[in-house]
Amino acid sequence: MMQMQTQAGESQRPRPLSALSLIAILGAGILLHPAWLTAQSNIRSGAIKGQVLVVDSAGTSYVPGTTLVLNGPQTLQAESDANGTFSFPSVVPGTYVIQANAPGLQGEMSVSVDAGQAREVSLKLQLAKATTSVVVAATSSTADLTSSTQTVEEKTIDDAPNADQKFETLLPLVPGVVRGPDGRINMKGARSTQSGALVNSSNVTDPALGGPAINLPIDVVASVQVVSDPFDPQYGRFTGALSSVETKTGDYEKRHFSIQNVVPRWRDRAGTIAGLGAATPRMTYTGPLVRNRAAITQSFEYRFIRTPVNSLPPLERDTKLEGFNSYTQADIMAGSKQTATVSLAVYPQKLDYMGLNTFTPQPSTTDFKQRGYQVYAQHRYLPTAATALISQFSYKTYDVDVNAQSDDPYRLLIDTTEGGFFNRQNRRTSRYESVESYQFAPQNLLGSHQFKTGVDYAHSDLEGQDRSLPAELVGSSGNVIEQISFSNSSWFDLNENETALYLADEWTVSSRLTFNWGARLDNDTITSTTHVAPRGGVLLSLTADGKTLLKGGAGIFYDRVPLLLPAFPDFPNRTVTVFGSTGDPLSAIFYENKIVGSLENPRSTAWNVELERQVTTQLVVRAAYENRNTARDLIVSPVSSESSVMALSNSGSDSYREFEVTGRYQLSRMTLNGSYVRSRSQGDLNDPFLFLGNYPQAVIQPDQKGRSLFDAPNRELFWADVRGPWKLNFVPVYDIHSGFPYSVENEYREYVGPRSSERFPRFSSADLQITRPFTMHIGDRDLKLRAGGSVFNVFNHDNPRDVQNDRDSATFGSFYNDAWREFRGKLVFEF
Fold it and tell me: What does residue 771 show for φ and ψ, rounded to 5 degrees?
């Protein structure tokens, strides 16, 4: 039976807080407040009506055919008529957000409706930065035809507890998205290098590794979407899920300035202040450059953060991150038919002691340094209300340096690590990408057809150096039992051209049946192949009222081959020498890096089916199943024969199955979200970037199949947005899932028994953020404040992140480095 192990420094762990006490306090304060009870009992309907308009140099014009979605206690949809007018004739009292979309234009506004009240509003549209497709959250009254799409909206980004204050940290609010044991976000059973990442429809992955590689101040983020198996053929170069970030449009009329996180956090060690713990000030400005014609957004963020490994000594347990993020965006409205967006993102960062954990102290870690920027521009021309020509350009750089703390011999012991890290890297990457897409006017043939087509060209460059010093394995006897030595440092210089062409059709047969179908052609100069990827989806309204929707899709996806993989033969070769008990060498095997066969693009085949039902005006439920199989996956594995080889090949495969049940219940002052996910993620485990990435492993054992390192078969997620008494806003989040798997090893780092046969304890964490708005009158101006705080791991549950998996250790099976309860303050100034 595995037992918990207490390490030095863990005596500082905060005392657990009674769960029943906290629930009783919050329940009494919120649910029994008279104002709250009164609000819940008043259910007489109200109404919303208004007009959709655009203001430009030609004056004010009204926009017909605009799709409007009302989100709040109810989810309703409407469309503006020939005069731009719309109405929601019967709505439950409460606060709503109206989202409006027309070709190339979008708008959003909040509106509150009281019982028996008819609100009249004017909704102004501005330029849209989205692609030609309109993506709708899965819980809305309409559905995305091609995939399961779930969105983290702007209000949630502002109000949900967020320890890192980064938009990626909120992705686990989506069912099927987890933060794995390595800290990376894994979406829908895919590794981070298998998924796609977009910002304003621009690819922001690292050309060398394939994972996301951009940092944005969270203040500029309007929404984050997770698209599982996006069957729209405009998306490509990944085999997993897709994350898509949209930034906020600048304000064309008024100036706004905000500043927050101005008070630093101190580092508390055993009740003593030991320096600075974190300082993350953030400032954002938006306002007109030319009234109603051009607007600018500028956000600066400085980040200094120490993150502890709680099982290490108090003053030797922190990683240290220091970075600066800047985002500048100009939005231009040349008229009702032409709009544009131009942006510049800069994101240098340094992380000291990367790889720090219970068994790797600071002297044996690395320092990671990145530099990069992205220039982006998008122009939208709308010849008619139903057609759109979108031209997009981006240029991105991402440079990485990985350096050790010292050149002392790197020694892997049973219970710790000594010396300086064995690997050093320098990489310089860049990518240019240009995209043209066109949406045609609807055509009538057995229904209505909406065609769109596009072409995509990208050119990527990589140059760099990789150097490795010897690594030694020290056995339980205290003697060196194995040494891994490497050949001289390697240099690599590669480039790649990628082209893609797609054609898609949205075929509306009737008001209750719609098909999406199309195909994508991809070509790249690394594999010198062209692939055709057909995809399709269907949406069927099972009831005439549109409240019961059945949808499904299927398609083929081809992944990119990151540029670091073709350089594999240029990486240092290795010699593995095994020593006897007397210190004499028993054997030595030289492994030469080779690509076995030709490199091919990994391919996944995916399908899903969903049933969504709006049970009442307050309750929406959804059940979904998806299945994805990936073939020709890339793996690294040693092959011992007369001529031993360290082989990179396309011989791997993986699969993902997921069944999901999700519900959302809305009242006038509360939104409750709940989900259960049953999943299985498994496949070949020797991911190349475990050995070639930013923090490579020294020992490479033969590949095996097993559960993925981020596999969580059972997960329950609950979160709410509650407008309580005294203007307090509560956002609690409760996440519970199966512990992640791990493998058992011996002192040679050889796997014992099946891979991924053991698991960490069940993960359980409750987070809470409470905020309240304030207004201060200073002269003739109002200063708006939002103050509050967050608690992470409210109940102080043991969630260890490290395990002693070496069976030759006296502490085999013990868990370490659990996440303690943390408190954070929040103070936002707005002018």
Answer: -135, 160
**What residues of the chain score a pLDDT lower than 70?**
1-45, 55-61, 73-75, 82, 92, 103-104, 115-116, 127-147, 641-642
**145, 538 Cβ separation under 8 angstroms:** yes
Question: Kind of pairing, strands 126-127 and 59-62?
Answer: unpaired
- The SS3 assignment for 231 reads coil
**Which residues are CB-contacts of 789 (< 8 A; sequence separation ≥ 6)?**
769, 770, 823, 824, 825, 826
Q: What backbone torsions phi and psi does residue 199 show, to the nearest 5 degrees?
A: -125, 120
Q: How do beta strands 529-541 and 548-558 pair?
A: antiparallel
What is the predicted pLDDT for the residue at 386?
A: 81
The pLDDT score that the predictor gives to residue 43 is 41
241 in Cβ contact with 260 (< 8 Å): no
Looking at residue 13, its pLDDT comes to: 54
**H or E stretch covering 376:** strand 366-381
DSSP H or E stretch at residue 20: helix 19-31
Helices (H), ranges, 608-688: none
> To which H or E segment does residue 458 belong?
strand 448-468
200 neighbors 341 (Cβ within 8 angstroms): yes
- Residue in 651, 748, 653, 654 with CA at minimum distance from that of residue 701: 748
**CA separation, residue 381 to residues 127, 340, 500, 658 (Å):** 11, 9, 22, 40
- DSSP letters, 392-425, are EEEEEEEEEEEEES--SPEEE-SS-EESS-SEEE
Closest Cα partner for 178 from 194, 191, 160, 193? 191
pLDDT, residue 9, reads 39
Estimate to the nearest angstrom the gap between the alpha carbon of 426 and the chain centroid.
Answer: 26
Give the count of beta carbons closer than 10 Å to the beta carbon of residue 79. Answer: 11
Q: CA 718 to CA 187: how far, in whole Å?
A: 18
What are the CA-CA distances from residue 392 to residues 115, 406, 600 (Å)?
A: 46, 45, 28
Query: Exposed, middle or buried by CB within 10 Å (0-12, 13-18, 19+), for 753?
Result: exposed
Residue 93 buriedness (CB in 10 A; 0-12 / 13-18 / 19+): buried
Tokens encoding 389: 């020509």
CB 517 within 8 A of CB 537: yes
Tokens encoding 477: 């006897």
Q: How far is CA 794 from CA 621, 721, 736, 765, in A?
A: 28, 17, 13, 7
- Alpha-carbon gap, residue 653 to 108, rounded angstroms: 44
| CA angle, 122 then 125 then 127, to 5° | 170
- Which residue in the block uniquely carries the two structure tokens 């990151």? 562
Nearest to 355 by CA among 690, 827, 14: 690
Q: What is the DSSP string of 712-756?
A: -SEEEEEEEEEE-GGG-EEEEEEEEEPPPEE--B-TTS-B-SSTT
- Residue whose token pair is 């593995």: 576
What is the crossing angle of helices 19-31 and 34-41, to 10°?
Answer: 60
Q: How many C-alpha atoms does 784 have within 13 Å on its Cβ side?
A: 9
Interior/surface letters 172-191, b for 16+ CB within 10 angstroms, e for the rest? bbbbbbbbbbeebbbbbbbb
Residue 825's closest CA among 59, 261, 339, 207?
A: 261
Is the CB of residue 700 less than 8 Å from the CB of residue 638? yes
pLDDT, position 55: 67
Note the pTM of the prediction, 2 decimals.
0.84
What DSSP designation does 154 have? H
Contact at 8 Å (CB) between 262 and 278? no
**Ordered DSSP codes for 322-368:** EEEEEEEEEEEE-SSSEEEEEEEEE--EEEEEET-BTTB-GGGSEEE
